[in-house]
Design brief:
mainly alpha, 1 helix, about 35 residues, rod-shaped
Length: about 35
Amino acid sequence: NMQRTLVQKAYAEIAPRAEKWIRGIQEAFCIPAAV
């Protein structure tokens, strides 16, 4: 399925950035990492 492949590629690119972004927010608000 072409669409599924595109979604997986997009997720592979976005996931690492999202993780850094979430960690940055957690540090900014002093929220303990729940992940």
